[in-house]
TrEMBL record:
Gene3D superfamilies: Hotdog Thioesterase. This is MaoC family dehydratase. It comes from Burkholderia stagnalis. It comes from the Bacteria. InterPro entries: HotDog_dom_sf, MaoC-like_dom, MCH/BMMD.
Length: 152
């Protein structure tokens, strides 16, 4: 299957996409801890985590955001490479070993950039959802995306 990356001009407010899924494993959580240097016991020590209010190992909050961003790039709704302008993101429920996650996102708003001709800004409200249909994290990603040269 060929994926066509979108210019800003190709997107429409209200467009919706659901990503492929991702299985959370203990090994992936531990690898994230090693990558970031965050070895907080609730993420890496099963005995400690089992005795905590979570009752099990849980992923780092930013693990979820990182996975959400990666899953968006694996979807069939992709933009040409641009620039991330920032995130507003909330952690609602713990992410646990064995969770199967996917992202649902939509094009929430769009506007042409005032400061950078040839670019447009897109806001993508997004939800990170587990296998039970529970939204574990959600928020918005703001992107600057190239415009079609002929549209300028």
């Amino acid at each position: 299957m060929t994926i066509v990356e979108k210019y800003w001009d190709d997107a429409r407010e209200g467009d919706v996409c659901t990503s492929p899924s991702y299985i959370v494993t203990k090994e992936r959580i531990l690898a994230y801890a090693d990558l970031t240097g965050d070895h907080t016991p609730v993420h890496v020590d099963e005995e400690y985590a089992n005795a905590s209010h979570f009752g099990c190992l849980v992923a780092h909050g930013l693990f979820g955001l990182s996975i959400a961003d990666g899953l968006k790039t694996q979807s069939d709704y992709r933009f040409l490479p641009g620039m991330s302008l920032g995130w507003t993101w909330d952690f609602l429920l713990p992410i646990k070993v064995g969770d199967v996650l996917h992202v649902k996102f939509r094009v929430g708003s769009m506007r042409a950039s005032k400061s950078r001709p040839g670019w447009g800004i897109v806001v993508l409200p997004s939800e990170l959802i587990n296998q039970d249909g529970q939204v574990v994290q959600h928020g918005e990603h703001r992107l600057m995306v190239p415009r079609r040269p002929e549209a300028l």
